[in-house]
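ERR on first pass: missing label on line 2. Operator R.T. fixed the label and resubmitted. Corrected input:
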Amino acid sequence: MGSPSRDHLTNIRGRFHDVRGCTSRKGIGPRVVVRIVLAVMIGTLTGGAPQSRAGDTIYVKVLVDEEEVFRDEVWKQRLRNRLERASEILGQYSKVRFSVIEFDRWDSDDATQDFLASMREFESEVSLGRARLAIGFSSQYQLKMGRDQLGGTRGALHSHILLREGNPRVFEPDRLELLVHELGHYLGAAHSVDPDSVMRPVVADGRARRKAYRIRFDRENGAILRLVGAEVAQRGVRRFSDISLRTRDKLRLQYARIAMAFPDDPSAKKFLQLLDGPVTPVDHPTEVTTAGTLIPALPPATLPPPATTLPNRSSAPAAPPRIPARR
Ligand SMILES: [Zn+2]
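pass 2 clean. output:
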């Protein structure tokens, strides 16, 4: 997968380089003006030339399925705003920014009621185009009462994230927090036992709607975002398994801390495996889950991939203890 932004920049720069060559010798003539206008038009049509340094920005393709009820301009603005806010929050920990480069729709299977099947379908139907990451917002089916999966991805730097959208019980602050949570997974964050961390395994629990609430990462995941973000932004790393040995050692330390404080959740251990593993195979989803699920009804063999869940007020386990203070 090439860098769409870089290709695009090369294209535009190439054109302006031609123009500069002409002007230095002859001044700007009609043909040059036409070329400038063409270059600007191409820049506008393709979303404009990104200003960020190569690698700083993860270009995102944002999609909704056919169940999205709002007009195109409404949902595009809503999701662009949400991604911008999520990117600002993640930018406090990491050098990486997320920016929408393309909007689209995909046709989700109306018969599907299973989140894992929806993820597989989303991954197989949606190509990345010029983006590095595709985020789908599905209004395909309503959430059941109680705990349910709200979103998922297969692991750090994986190409697709699927989120549920359009449920009246989940409000915009919850959706923002959910998006930050999944983008946190994208940058390597694991589930945290810290109940104030956006990486707690159960979100959309109402906290995000409190006035004083601020979305934040716990100390260990903050360190992970910094480390993985630096690999992406400075070394151009595209796969989790390509992270440098030095950073890998530092990540192992953070995952070990998380796993020790939260032994019931498998996500830190899964990320550790992914650090040393091959590229995530899209057609073997159950082997590459990266985040634990808290849906107790499912036997281990059928656990879906990464799951961010809604709390079930009747059967939710007691809040996990806080992470002991560390120096
Ligand atoms: Zn999660």
